[in-house]
Amino acid sequence: MTRLPARTLASAASAFALAAATITIASPASAHWSCGRAAPDDITTSWGSTTASTSARVGSSARCATAHTISPNENLDYHCFAVDINGIETWTYVVSVPNPSKRGWVSDSMLNDGGSYTACPNQG
Description:
Layout lengths: L5 H21 L20 E2 L5 E4 L8 E5 L5 E8 L6 E7 L6 E5 L17
Antiparallel strand pairs: 1-4, 2-3, 4-5, 5-6
């Protein structure tokens, strides 16, 4: 087995990281879930809660209207995630377990575990 110099390995690692970043940018998760669009299907079995009282919105952005207020530590069923309108932050669609009429998009920064790890299909 031939050993490669550290510089060659670093170059290969950089090329791989760049390729992975390119793939991530082109993935379906790079789209915003439009304000007011119908809720995504529940495609995960993941759960979590908020770290503080927060707004559940009608789309995956702080620019979208507030649908409900989610209380701190309220149990939430996660459906999937999408990015915000700027393509930077991720948002998870949640449904309150104690009160299923409370639902909407919550910024992953407000969720105790960072939100869903499953991208919503058919974003845009």
